[in-house]
Amino acid sequence: MDLRHTDVVKYVGMTGAVSGAASTVGAAAGSGMPASAHTQIGGESSTRARIARLILENGPVSAAALSTRLGLTPAAVRRHLDSLLAGGMIEVRSARRPASRGRGRPAKLFVITDAGRSAFEHAYDDLATGALRFLAEVAGPGAVAEFARRQVDELERRYRPVMASAEPGAKVQALAEALSADGYAASAIGAPGSPATAGGEQLCQHHCPVAHVAAEFPQLCEAETEAFGRLLGTPVQRLATIAHGDGICTTHVTAPSLVQTRTTTASTTTTPHTATTDPGGISA
Predict the structure, then answer these.
(1) Which terminus in the chain has less CB density within 10 A, N or C?
(2) Is residue 52 within 8 Å of 116, Cβ to Cβ?
(3) Is the confidence at residue 138, as pLDDT, over 90?
(4) Do the domains spanning 9-95+107-118 and 125-263 agree at the CATH topology level?
(5) C-alpha span between 194 and 216 (Å, rounded)
(6) CA separation, residue 21 to residues 41, 51, 131, 142 (Å)
(7) Are the beta carbons of 194 and 252 closer than 8 angstroms?
(8) Is 97 helix (H, G, I), strand (E, B) or coil?
């Protein structure tokens, strides 16, 4: 979305060891460059930024998984995790232990916090929010909705060739990859529950560059959701958003086969027969 390119920077106040990580992470997200491009600048803080980004994109995640992913020793990863915890950028959750595993200390999983997520944001929120408030006051709420649709039109135009070339069963994954390339840290997973109740997939966005703006102007989320439906060619429903305090933005994508089944069922339903009379008085 073009809102990400206003060239206005608002620094998020962080002190201590995590300040370098926050600035490096923010630079990686703000520039659109992968985090790996920043690891050569800043040593310790760059490694910490990579860990924070992996937690953002893959959390909840264990220290062992981070160690394997980064090729670092568990001790090195734990040192960075301790710094991120101290800075409030991440928090710990306990993994549920299967009953078959018996007793024992539950594994620690790490997730990003609101403060950590803020370090990835482009920090033009105040200007963008003020501009939309002015637009709403001068031209009315409808103008904000039209603005949101115009912004999403560009995103939809760029994604359409990607979606057209994707295999029928891989369109949600293709959309997730396109969104990730634009900094949304997206993933596609099967919807929870049985196939009969789930009937599709979930598109998850672990990062939203306009979350604080969308908290006041949900038209941005609504326009984006509508675009997802058009790109995927199937009904979608937004289940959760970062803008409203949820951990991730989650969109349920209805399975195309389910839509076809419903359409077929509807078309074969018997309709009431209406009697007509011809000029000769014979009922038809």
Answers:
(1) C
(2) yes
(3) yes
(4) no
(5) 36
(6) 11, 9, 30, 40
(7) no
(8) coil
User: What ranges do the domains of the chain cover?
Assistant: 9-95+107-118, 125-263
**What CATH number was assigned to the domain covering residues 9-95+107-118?**
1.10.10.10
Give strand ranges (E) for the chain.
Answer: 90-94, 108-112, 186-190, 200-205, 236-240, 249-254
In angstroms, the CA 44 to CA 122 distance is 23
The predicted pLDDT at position 127 comes to 81
Residue 105: CA count within 13 A, CB half-sphere: 3
Residue with tokens 């803008």, as numbered in its chain = 243
Model-level pTM?
A: 0.57
- Which of the pair, 28 or 246, is modelled with greater confidence? 246
Helices (H), 71-140: 74-86, 114-118, 125-139
CATH number of 125-263: 3.30.1380
DSSP 18-63: HHHHHHHHHHHHHH---GGGGTTSSTHHHHHHHHHHHHHHH-SB-H
CB 116 within 8 A of CB 88: yes
